[in-house]
Amino acid sequence: MAEDNQDLLRYAQEYSEKDIDLYDLLGVDALTPKDDIHRAWRKRSLKYHPDKAGEAFDADKWELFERARDILSDPNARARYDASAKAKLLRKQEREAMDKERQRFADDLEARENAHRQQKAAKEQSDRDAMNKERERLAEAQRMRDEEKKRQESAAQEMEDLAEARRRLKEKKEEKARRKQAKETMKASAAAGRTPGAANGVVTVPGDYLVDLGEVKKHYWELVCDKLRAVQAARNAAKGQSSQEEVQKAEETVQAARKRIHEAELKFQKEAMAS
């Protein structure tokens, strides 16, 4: 079962370089004697045995268990394995020590660089603070100049607004006077144009009485609705910001609606008297 000594030495060297822990594989340590090595091998490798594993048999795993047993059972191979592992461990420790030294050097260099950067940043911050203070001083001076300018502009605007308000008030009074005069004129004209005894609403006319207006025919109730809408429009024009021309046009619309109603009442009255 055991391989010759040269092969064991070669495998011992190979496994140590590959970091294959033969002790851990068999569940033993460096102080375990040869007899216990065999017992540990039988216990650990039992499930890998061809008869036990069956179709799941792993030849490489089984071979590794056997070589671990043979190397750790052979004094020379075990010594080679331990020496190689120790040498590798020593090299690792040396590398770690060198890495620590390099890291210490790098940390020291980084610390000096950080200190230099902090000093530089502190100076830059100080310069920025001084520059910001100067900017704030200039900004404050500009703000005061702007506020004074706005105050002067506001005062001037208030004077202009006051003058504009007076002008609008004057125009409003004049417009009100013109509207009042126009209403009085239209009332006088309407009173002069009416036939005595036939004012709108005096003659009772059925709502469905049909009136021939030439191009169209409307019922009496439609003429009344037209007049009401015209009156409301005229009131809105008189109360709003409408021009004198718009107010005049609205009043003319009212008079036209009243005239149509008046003519319809006269016609109905004549027809009623004739019958």
TrEMBL record:
Subcellular location: Cytoplasm; Nucleus
Pfam family, one: DnaJ
UniProt-listed SUPFAM superfamilies: Chaperone J-domain (SSF46565)
Biased composition (Low complexity): 188-199
Coiled-coil segments: 240-267
Keywords: Chaperone, Coiled coil, Cytoplasm, Nucleus
GO CC annotation: cytoplasm; spliceosomal complex
Superkingdom in the source lineage: Eukaryota
InterPro entries: DnaJ_domain, J_dom_sf, Pre-mRNA-splicing_ERAD
Domain named J: residues: 21-85
Protein's UniProt name: J domain-containing protein
Upper lineage: Eukaryota, Fungi, Dikarya, Ascomycota, Pezizomycotina
